[in-house]
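Weekly modeling sync, notes
Attendees: S.R. (lead), two postdocs, one rotation student

Agenda item 3: backlog of single-chain predictions. S.R. asked that every request posted to the team notebook include the full sequence so nobody has to chase files. The rotation student volunteered to paste the first one in as an example of the format we agreed on. Action items at the bottom.

Example entry:
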Amino acid sequence: MSATNEASSPPPAKRRWPWIVLILVILALALALYFRLKDRAQPVAPAQTERMLELNKVEITTLVPQLLEQTVKVTGTLAPERRADITPQVSGKLQTVNVRTGDAVLAGQVIAQIDIRDLRLTLNQQVANSEATKAQLSLARSQLENTQALFERGTASKASLDSAQANVDALSAQVDALQAQVDTAQRAIQNASITAPFAGVIASRSAEPGQSVTPGSPLVTLVDLSVMEVQATAPLSDSASLKEGQRATLTVEGIADKSFSASVDRISPVAIENTRSIPVFLTLENPDGIFRGGMFTTGSVVVDEAQDALAVPSSALREDKQGEYVLTVVDAKLVRQPIEKGRQWSTGNLVQILTGLNPGDVVVTGRLPELEPGTAVTIVGN
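Predicted structure, as returned to the notebook:
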């Protein structure tokens, strides 16, 4: 009986294995579905784009030919180029003084008048003396002629003839001397009218009517403002480059937003004692009369120049193992451009470029050491 029951029951292992296979298949399908849905849900990464660097317009320069100048700085003050301290040439009492400080006068205009009454008395006396001596000379000449006639007839001695001739000679010399005194007295009257030697402006007045004056006494100071002299100084180290005739550009204290052209007139051969400066004198035209003596001025003298030159700021220059170069913008990319540089000029502290660049090239001039050739750039800003 027991043997029959054992034979009729199926083995347990044969009943479970289909379920195990089914579960494994379901798990595999679930995992496959999960990863497929995950791949669909994950966004696709965009393609890598090239990095674009922005450059401001103040960081680039478009090259154009320009005038480069090397200059020497000068500072100084203005003074009238022509100045005269007018003094009398004769002694006397001032009758009138016709000008005041600031008055404009013409050449030959009477500035002051000295009383001529005493001078005229002197002249009259000299004229009288001269006329009297001329009369004596006329009589002496007549006597000489008579003595000469008597000597020729043998009735007068040689001594008498010589004496008559000596008398004529002495009186002739006396007449000449007295005539010179007359001329001097006439000039004294003329010089009593004190006139302006040139057109200008009265800078000062030192005398008043009624004052007694002598030759050399100061009356007025006259200046000509049409041309000014700039009494300036320059660094002694730059003196070798300064030459007469070089042009200069000046600004004058009190006259804003304007510059003026001047020229070097002369240069002192020695420096100012205990300084490293040398005096330089420039000529400055003043046709409008806007300059005054004593005005302070600064400026620069052009000692060298280069026409139609290409130049960049020193900040644009770069250097690597291959040599010096600049970065130019070509087709929105930075390009390494080898260059040969020249000297540095005073004009904007620019460095002249001898070879490697052309007019119209766009050069990076900003201090941007991180820039590299090949970088894509775009220009922004006004």
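Discussion: group reviewed the output briefly. The helical segments are 2-8, 12-41, 117-153, 158-191.
Action items: rotation student to repeat for the remaining queue; S.R. to check formatting next week.
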